[in-house]
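Data availability excerpt. The first of two example chains:
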Amino acid sequence: MSVDALLAALADPARRGLFESLTEPASVSDLASRHPITRGAVSQHLKVLVEAGLVDVRPQGRMRIYSRRPESLRALAQYAIAMDKVSEAGPQDAIASELGKWQAEAPNIDYGVLALMMYFTQIGHHVVSSSEAVAERAGLSFADVALLGALRRLGPPYESTSSRLARTFWISLPGMTKRLGRLEAAGLLIRSVDADDRRSALLRLTDKGLSVLRDLVANQQPAEYHALLQLSAAEREQLSSLLPRLLDLIDAQHGQRRPAYRVR
């Protein structure tokens, strides 16, 4: 039963009055005697309530007996609780406003987990957008910075083959040859023949490339960095302990193989 259907069924005052009067099972005649509407109108309203999942009906001799469905009230109560949480959190929390609807639409699903996934998606969008903006200020793309940063994380002498970068940092960059040529032309890395495999190019970060990365890290942190600083040290520590564990569990769901990290 959907929250929309429940609310729509109860929007009519006469129909809502019938529902409220079903404190115990009753027939159409019983209900018509209590309300200033015809038996036909009572029957039509009960039909809507039954279709919405608010009321059950069962035959009893030549009559049909109607009664409330307790689980329908629980769905409405859960929706009201979710809306109360939204009011406490503030109107900007659009994700939380969907929690009650998820619970009513699919009660077998943990809607709290779905909400977390929605939060991760929105946070990820912000992180990528901000990182692109920071990279652009240095005349680079997010993909360029990801590649240079992977070389930096290897430590001195900051060199590797592209295949090793892919294995070590799960990076799979489209248009690799053209990207490497542009970074080399900018003086941020150099390419040479790999002595161990002459078919592969050895990539090495230049002093200029290292300087650009250091400036980005020291002076060009995105908005999300400053947002995280607004959390307490204990809150950041909690995230730092939970997120690696979550990443391990997600890796396991993907068959222990983390997919290549693709940036455009």
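And the second chain:
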Amino acid sequence: MDGYRLGCLARENGHRLHVHDTLGSTNTEALERSRAGEAGPLWIVAHRQEAGRGRRGNAWASLPGNLTASLLWPVDDVDPGDVPTLGFVAGIALMSAFRAAGIDGVALKWPNDVLASGAKLAGLLLEAETSPGGRRSVVMGFGVNVAAAPKGLPYAATCLRQMQHDTRAEDLLVHLTDGIVDAARLWRRGRGFPDVRARWLDQAAGIGAPVTVRIGDARVHGIFETIDEAGRLVVRSDDGTRRTVTAGEVHLGTAATAA
């Protein structure tokens, strides 16, 4: 079947889908719909995204044939401290989608990327919204390089086509929408994050290897030991001390020594 569509599990669990030819940003569209009273769960997909953004305000290039999708998700009944862990839910859901599509050789990079042979294949963006009436929502944004990888980036990027996979963005969305349902069941509105964390760690890149995190002008060097119970990166220094990192620009492996 041609065109974007939801998976069976997603439809059974009340998810809806809006598809657009062109948008500035699927995340922005989802946030605007939340402000207008939309509760979700609602998927926003664009064939072309002209003003996409990534984490920390970075631009996200969306090329023809790639997957650009956002999910508006209600979180009124979730403890505000647990909401950020939805980023890990999104990560394991995307990994599930890759597996369902027969794609291997990929790994999660803390906090919000998917790598293939060290090159960026996909990125995630989590944004929260509180309406004037107090209703709380989260938008989970997904950008996957399916048909093409952007050029001129300060890091290596790849796409499924370069990896010799012929999966289409439309097919990947079916698996992703069902994968979110399964991952959300595991998460249990935040109470199940220990199970999500364990699954995320099983699929993570760089554990036990050198890592450097840039935090403004500062750098944290050490070994990527784990993520803690709040999803923070745990770095072990040469003297055995441990530091937890909430946010920063992460370099793994050989890139860590050059950062």
